[in-house]
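Example record

One chain of 176 residues, shown exactly as stored in the release files.
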Amino acid sequence: MIQYCLFIFWWIIFVSPAEFLINTVILPWASLQKFGGAVATYTFLLTVYYLIRWRKIYNHEESRTEKIIEAVILGSFGLFVIEWWLIGNSPIENPDAGQLSMFIWWIFVFIFPKIMTFPKYRNIRKSILIYQIIYSVVFYLVAYITKIPLAGIVIYAYGLLIFYIFFLIYVKKEYK
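Predicted structure tokens for this chain:
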């Protein structure tokens, strides 16, 4: 139960900054209730993922191939099912939406809590947390200074791409 609570806690640390800005400021129907709904939805999805994968996550060393396949499945699920089908952020309905960033976002929605709770990644947790704090502050500052909240999300999306590249380099080095 403690591992599950930590898993959800780290998810909140990762997802909340962007979701708060999106659901309380950017969307035309923005409100705290929408943010609460997003949090409930993410918690449900993370709980299902945790229940399906927890033995594999905590009791087994995953190969690099398993990690890549899992990332592609999670990113595809989030992009196609959640973003395109449920939210309407497909390239046809919303051509301005960053498809690659959304794909990576969904990978990290599921993977970030795993990184922060899985013992294998203990040596990079501090770096990841520092990066998360810095780029969360930066995207809020950009949104505040420019008075364009969407600019903050663009910064967040590019920050996520940089974070993903950093993580891939680490995984490649760790799993030679």
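Notes: The radius of gyration is 16 Å.
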